Structure formats: C-alpha cells, structure tokens
Amino acid sequence: MIRVRNLCKSFGARVAVEGLSFDVDPGESFGLLGPNGAGKTTTMHLLAGLVAPDSGEIEIANMTDPTRKAVRRNLGIAPQVLALYEDLTAEQNALFFGRLYGLGGAKLDQHAAWALDFVGLSERKRDPVRTFSGGMARRLNLACALVHNPPVLLLDEPMAGVDPQSRNLLLENIRHLKAHGRTIVYSSHYLAEAEQLCDRVAIVDDGRILALDTVEDLVASYGGPAQVEVEFAGPPPAWMGDLPGNVAGRTWQFQSDDPLGYLARLSAEGADFLSVRVDAPGLESVFLSLTGRRPRD
Amino acid sequence: MPAILTLAAKDLMLLWRDKAALFWVFLFPVAVAVLFGVMFGGGLRGVAVLPVMLLDQDGTPGSRAFVKSLEESPALKVQHAADLEAGDAAVRRGQVVALLVARAGLDKALSGKKLDEAALELRADPSRRAELGVLRGLIAEAAIANIVVPQPMELVPGLRAAAGVPTAPRLDVVAVAGGRDRPRTPFELSFPAGMAWGLIGCVATFALSIVRERQAGTFLRLRAAPLSRGDILAGKALACWLACMAELLLLLAVGMLFFKIRPGAPGPLLAAFAASSAGFVGLMMLLSQVGRGEMAVASAGWAVMLVLAMFGGAMMPYFLMPEWMQDLGQLSPVRWAIMVLEGTLWRGLSWREVLRPCSTLVGIGLMSFTIGVMLLRRRAT
After folding, report:
1. Does the predicted TM-score (pTM) go above 0.90?
2. Would you give the end-to-end CA distance of chain A in angstroms?
C-alpha cells in the first residue's frame, strides 16, 4: 500500500529525514517510534505531500507523488497539532472536512454522523470545539481524518496530551479501524501504545531508521534479558551462590533470557517465594538498547 | 525569580526573538515620527500643491504672462488642457482641483485695469471647497501681478485700493461634477471614506485569519486535502472579496436609507465596488505574509494600512499633503478607492471614467496578491 525508498529531507542545515525506506502492506498497522525531533512528523508530512522530499520516492496505492488529488483522496491525516476550527461545532468541522473530499448531500451527513459516533462525540456534536477537553478535541481530530472513509490513515501522535479515558477510547478506535482493514501509519513516542497497536514498528532517531520489525522480533533481537526480582519467605537457599545476580537479605535480583527456568528450578528445590516480579523486555528496552536513551528524553 | 518577573521575562524574550514584531514595536514608530516631522516641519519639498489645469483661449501676451505667473507659483502644479472637454474630464475624475480657462479678452481686461471684468472661468468640483478657496487666492495674486498700473501704485502700498483698482479678479465659477453640481449631503463625502476604512478592517481581519489557520494547523489539514494551493488561496480571497463587497453594500444601503445618498448609475458603482474589493483582497494576502506570528501580522497589518490610509487621503485632505506625499499617494489603494467610490456615489462618473481607477485598483490587487503567494510558497518549503 505504501512504499518509501531513500527518503531525504533537510530544513536548511538540519537533516530531518535521512534515507528512510520502508513498506506498509494493505491493512497493516505500522508504527514510527522515536523521541521528539526524530523525524516522525516530517515523515508523516512527506507521506501526505505537505512537504516535498529532497530526494527519494514515495508510492501510495500504486501512485507516486502524494500531492496528486487521487492520492490524497486515499489518505486521512490526523496531524499532531489539533487541526480544528475552534469556533465551529464538532459537526460543522466534520462536515467541512468531508466536503473538501468531495462528499455532499445525504452521504456527507451519514459519513459525518458515523465519524462523530465512532469517536464518541455524537452527543456533543453541536457544541463548539473551544468548549471541548483536550481528549475530546483529539478524538474529533481523528474523526475529521476519517470522515471521507480513507483506506490509509496517517496518525501523527494521536494520543498526545489526552486523558486516560480518551486514550482508551482512541486506542479502541484505532484497533477497530485496524480490524476493519485500514492501513495505518502511526507515529508516537509512547511505546506501550505502539506495542498494542502496531504490527510492525520502525525505531527512528535523528531522521534514520535504526531497526524495523515486528514488536516480538525487535524485542527478541534488541530487548535484552528480563529483569527478575524474587523475595523469599525465609532465608535464601545456601546454594544460590551458583546462580547469577545479586542477593541482598531475602531479595534476589537477576537478569535472564529464561527467568521461568530459574524460578522452576528454585521451586523444585523447595524455595519458598513471597513475591516474584518479572519485567519482560519491551520496546522501551529495545529503544534504550538502540539509542542509549529513553524515547521521552 | 518571582512568577510575575519570570512571565514578563519570557514574553520579552519572545518579543526579542520575533524580529518582525520588534520592527513594528520599535523601528516603525521611529519611521512614523520622522515621516510626520517631515510632513509638518517643511522638510523636503514640504509644500502642499494644488493640481490645476489651464486652458488659454485668449492666447495674448497678457494671458500668457498671467498663465506664467500661475505656473511659477510653488503652490500649484499646473498642467495644460488640450480642450475644454479634456479639462472637464480631469476635474470629474478628481485628477485636478479645477480647470482655469483664460477666455478671450483676458489681456484686454487686465491692461484696462478692469479686473472685475477679467475673462476668467473656473470649472471646478464644488465639493472641494477648501482647495478652491486656496486656488481663488492664488488666481487673484497672479491676476493682480499682471495688471498694468502706473508706477506710483506699485511703489506705494495701499494706493491700488485708493485708486479703485479691484484687489481680486472676478471668476465665473462653473460646476463640473458629473450630473450633479455638488454633493446632496455631507454624507456623500463621508461615506466613501467610511467605506475605505471598512475595506481596511476586512483586510486586517482576513490577514489575521490566514495566520491563525497556519498556527492552529487547519491550514495543514487543508493542504493535505485533495485541493491545490490555488484552490485554498482562491477560497480565502473569495471570502475576503465577498466580505468587502458586503461591507460596501451595507454602507451603501445605510447611506441610501438613512442619509439621502443617491448614487449614480449602478453599473459603474458596482464596478467600483468590485475593483476596490479586489485591490484590498490582494493587500490582504500580502499582509498575511509579513510576519510569522499573529502579533507580528496584526501589528504590521494595521501599521501598513494606516500609512496607506494616510497617504491615500483618508486621514487628512489630499490637497494639504506635500507634493511628494501626493505622488506617493498614487500607490495607495485607499486613494484610488476613495476616488472611485466618491466618483460613482455622487459625481456620476461614467464607465469610461471609472476605467482608470478601477484598473489601477485591480492591478494593485493582482500585484500584491502575487507577491503574497510567492512569500507563502517560500515559507511553506
């Protein structure tokens, strides 16, 4: 559905995107993960044809040049900034953006009503956007991207600054869209969301892709061992000196690719656990391993 | 640091980093102060000049000397009319204050010391009373200077009056102002200026709306839609043009309903409205690009519009301005808008006569719109 090759973009001396290449299959949910300034938004703008690349190729739905109207009809973008008219109502915003994509009459009304209902704003559709909370405005931002029913969605930090309730609603919305075959390109620096939503993830930093794979494979390749903390009910067994990690009092901390193996052995030897905590590696540790910092640093 | 000081320091830092805002806050007031100083302090060629046309039908040495006296007056900018019709047309278009006709017999009247019989005809727009008052004085001065009188009268002050020589020539004043010799009410003069200020308000409002769209991100969503950049800008321009037209029509309706304004032919009037609106739409696009932020564009927009209004005659009578200001005023759409609105509201300008100001306004609009679009494109890339 989307094919990107050697995409480069600089703003003056600052390189925003440097040689990006990736493919997104139809119906796939693809994540661009990276810290602020990594080049995610620039990549989104390049895909939407909002800025011209210095070099490289973009192909969407078998068409090159995303500035073409035919390409743009296939795209829905929810920008990172809340691109809404605050003095208009939610419904007026949805209808306006629907009209821009050639919808009209009863079809436009149906699409706008569906989009507002989908994001849970039907009851507030006649309220001006300026009266909305950040989370509601974020949901409307998504509705305006959906109103023309595009097969490809570009969601740039769609959860930025939203309350937990809206976050859950948005996560549910995006899962639903994915389940119904939309191709989604999703950018975020919230790794937990990406783990839940994305089929494949590209870790981006300084405009370059550092790694690209499924979440499981990225974790397997770059996540490192699990962090385990065990608290014994009594004194730790004397033979524990053979095991890796540190013992302090009744607490044992260690790293392992096979934590359950160690725990099973301890259990078989009659160790009595008070508590066990296993922090399995995730995208956070993948990111830390690849960049040496956390995505929100 | 106390919170208030922290907040103030942040705002001052933001101001310091906004070069455009800095210009409007600090440099522009200096420029205005200097400009007004020059205007009112007599600097440069700081003398107001009245544009007049002359037609010498007498063609005698006396009439030529009279014309020369007027030409040498620093307070007049004299042009020569090819004929009566061309002179009248220039008066009607507001290009000159009056057409002064030296009729046959002027020389004879001057040499016969019968100034009250001087064959002078002043064909003028009677609405320009203040300018005509100044002009009458200058004509009298030139006429008296060309009367042939005995030497003692030249040498002894007051002897002319004692000898019964008139101190002012008689002027036959002929009103030249389309179908009407004067405005029906003072509102026919004030409404064109009011309309121009309304256009200025539209420009400021829409220029700001473009900046707000850019800052709020809606412009980005518009650009991501299947629209060309031309579609988006044309939409903005159309909205601004319609708002300008609505403003003009509203003032016209108010003027007609409550202030006895009776406009001339509807065709030229609508053409004047359309062209004035087009001129100001172009300015709107240009002004929306003079700064990045809302504050910068708001300051710049109003500052520029005030200058254009000042040079265009919306803040002080055009004839009171120094010649250099009047020349610069030709570049102000406010000047052309007031001229064409006044002309069609009550002077009864014809299609042919509105062609020049209308095309000038459209030209200014096209030029500034093009520059604005170029700036927008440069910023977008």
Report:
1. no
2. 33
Q: Which domains does chain A have, with CATH numbers?
A: 2-221 (3.40.50.300), 225-280 (no CATH)
**Reduced to 3 states, what is the DSSP secondary structure of residue B68?**
helix
User: Are B226 and A102 a contacting pair at CB < 8 A?
Assistant: yes
Q: Is B68 within 8 Å of B110 (Cβ atoms)?
A: no
Is A83 in the B-facing interface, judged by CB distances under 8 Å? yes
Residues 219-248 of B with CB under 8 A from A: 220-227
CATH tag for B50-175 (out of 3.40.1710.10, 3.40.50.2300, 3.90.550.10, 3.40.50.150): 3.40.1710.10
- CB atoms B217 and A100 under 8 Å: no
CB-based contact B221 A72, cutoff 8 Å = no
Which chain A residues contact residue B222 at CB under 8 A?
100
- ipTM of the shown complex: 0.82
* Low-confidence residues of chain A: pLDDT under 70: 241, 294-297
Name which of A102, A101, A126, A125 is nearest A114 in CA terms: A125
Q: How many CB pairs under 8 A join A and B?
A: 49
Mean pLDDT per block of 10 residues along chain B (381 residues) reads 60 65 62 60 56 87 84 85 86 82 78 64 78 81 65 49 55 67 72 84 83 85 86 85 89 87 88 94 89 80 84 74 79 89 84 90 93 82 60
Contact state of A73 with B381 under an 8 Å Cβ cutoff: no
Q: Does A271 contact chain B (CB < 8 Å)?
A: no
Partner-chain contact A79 B217, CB within 8 Å: yes
Residue labelled with tokens 């796939």 = A28
Q: Strand ranges (DSSP E) for B32-165?
A: 50-56, 76-80, 98-102, 120-124
